[in-house]
Amino acid sequence: MRGNFVYLSLEPVTNMVYSLGISPADFLNGVPEVPNQLLLLNAESGNDVEINPHTRFQTVSGQAQVRRYLLGKHTQPVKWLDYLHADDLDFLLPTEIAELLYLGHMETHIRTPFYAKLQNEYAFLSLRDGFYKVYYQHLNHFGHVLDVSIKRHLRAMHNNRWVFARPLSITDIPHEILLQLTEGLMDGAVIAFDQLVERRRVYLIPVRAVQHPEHQAAWHTQEEVYADSKEVASLRYDLATREWSLTIHDNQEFGEVADLI
Q: Which residues, in sequence order, are bridge partners of residue 133?
């Protein structure tokens, strides 16, 4: 789906984030550490891919190989879990292997996708049209990923406006703003970079609340996303002071997250 925006929706019970516009590179640059080993839930080919005899799942080992795999081009959806030790896979029960097969095929969980035997931090599913579903063992890791993604989108918009300007140095987004964007709009948020305006060296980025989350499966164009959302806030970045702020226009749309800050 084309368009310069970020869509995100949080399922807090399972720490699952459904998103569009947050790239695998954003994920790699935002998580504290690149996973060292991946258990692939889909069939792949390539020199970095091996097969675990016990589970018959394919694996990728080594941080350099994992980074290359996640940043590479794929003809099939990319679906994986990380795991800690090479022999962890040999202790998976048939029922657990069946759950992993279900996760990869149905793109949703039966039980939690975090396994004590694997000690995995993530479960990562690429879906249709650039959508991703990522489960985070520690949800604060997503805050860093979102920070990286927002700064990348803003930097791209700035560079398009000012072709010969120096690269834009952007400070990190405060935790409380990331929390509002992630958990304040429980039905989903759209950060609309293509509707950005500049006023007195302040970038104003509209934040839109999703009105009909049940329509999400039918979204295929940016126009459909925007038609199902309305502007409720502005994410602001001051180029002079290098400070972020969030101005809320519709308090009724935002949930109470003060206790989480």
A: 18, 125
